[in-house]
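User: Teach me something about this protein's shape.
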Amino acid sequence: MRTLQLSSFGAPTDVVELAEADPADPGPGQLAVSIEAAPINPSDLQLIRGIYGVRPDLPAALGAEGVGRVIAVGAGVDRSRIGTRVLVVPTLEQATWREQTVLDARNAVPVDPDGDALQLAMLGINPITAYCLLHGYAKLAPGAWVAQTGASSATAGYVLALAKHARLRMLNVVRRTESVKPLLDAGADVVLVEGADLAKQAADAIGDASLDLILDAVAGEPVAQLAPLLKTDGQIISYTARARQPLSIPIVDLIFRGLTVRGYWLNLWLQRTPQDTVVQTYHELAALVTDGTLAAPVEATYALADYREAIAHAAQSDRNGKVLFALGASQD
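Assistant: First, the predicted structure itself:
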């Protein structure tokens, strides 16, 4: 069985290696899954560099999320699950950049056997993050304004789709002018480019309304400019540390209007949330993938053997879609 693994932390294209390993048999309460597709996420690259929220013992198998077919079950697991397609829940307890993986049955969520494997493979991290960001911190009525920085990212795309589904209004902030039109074409209400006049542009865009929630993916100055538009007792949720910038908020807004800053990490949510809720949320999101409400553009797929090219491609900042390893998924 071919698997990608990490023997030392460093530049992803240098330290990842392709290895052969004997397939493991599932133990009690476990499943063996033949992986169809597995995305390459920024969090994967951060883990490889050694700057993520966890540092695995080395050597370590890689890949957090993916989709595949159950090929064997251990004691205590219903044999009828063999042949079903499952989402690998990204608990970091199992790896997906490999031909087969073994995982606890609780970390395998059944999904549409006939759905798009590439889209379903991306369900584990970004859509669930988008859902939690929108619905986990504030009760948002239809028509409420939500702002998000880093709005051209894959996660932000899911936020936009879920916001439209919930009839929320989105103020999207991007870094580059060329990101504006694709977001408007996707149905964004407002798209603004970072700059010295962001606060004025944002205030003009929402008129007499206030922002109900700010979802932050970049930190730094954009958040400071948006914070004065947040309602009293409003919340700012930061969910990625890719740029490693400090979060900046005017102290007068923090003190006199009672703003709250929260951090979100999917791993903590998975650990703290009842299993039934985790499964139900994934089922609801999988249905939205099946009916086309949720989808992310795919720029390229690669075989495991082409891992260096795949990782280099995924690390590019000017991509227009996700990069995945496709083992048994259609690459059309």
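Now, about its shape. The radius of gyration is 20 Å. The CA atoms of residues 53 and 238 lie 14 Å apart. If you'd like, I can walk through any region in more detail.
User: That's plenty for now, thanks!
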